[in-house]
Amino acid sequence: MNKISHEGIVQSVGTDQIEVRITQSSACAACKVAAHCSAAESKEKIVHVKCANAMELYQVGDTVTVSMSSKNGRDAVMLGFIFPFLLLVAVLVLCLRFTGDEGIAALASIAALIPYYIGLWAFNVKVKKRFAFNIEN
Fold first, then answer.
1. DSSP secondary structure code for residue 27 in this structure
2. DSSP alpha helices (H): ranges in the chain?
3. What's the burial of 89, exposed, middle or buried (CB within 10 Å: 0-12/13-18/19+)?
4. Burial class (CB in 10 A: 0-12, 13-18, 19+), 10
5. CA atoms of 80 and 15, how far apart (whole Å)
6. pTM
7. DSSP character for 16?
8. Measuring CA to CA, which residue among 79, 51, 43 is closest to residue 67?
9. CB burial class (10 A; 0-12, 13-18, 19+) of residue 117?
10. In this predicted model, what pLDDT tens digit does every residue of 2-23 receive, in sequence order?
11. Is the Cβ–Cβ distance between 3 and 67 less than 8 Å?
12. Can you list the alpha helix ranges (DSSP code H) found in 7-63?
């Protein structure tokens, strides 16, 4: 099974979850000349990982590797970028076809994203369960 994995440092430990700080880099951030190029960037992210017996297994400062299946990564991109884009374009085209007014079509297509993202927010618990990170041993 293909995995997306990142190495990180444990920030905090709870009874059933840990917080891991990972550094997310763009592809060119690892390049030798990245320090001289404005395209290279990296961001730090905090990832919450469910883990039974977390307090017994991990301490703040430990280096761990967190992973997720690449299928889940593709699904996350679909939910976060592809589906909203397709919705935006579909509403734009339909409004242009029926009203002929570009301004109304633009506003309607942007407004159509509001219920989409409210729906994602409403199903936050299901989304978090589906896209959960694991710790590799």
1. G
2. 54-57, 70-77, 83-99, 102-111, 113-122, 124-130
3. exposed
4. buried
5. 30
6. 0.63
7. S
8. 51
9. exposed
10. 777 778 888 888 778 888 888 7
11. yes
12. 54-57
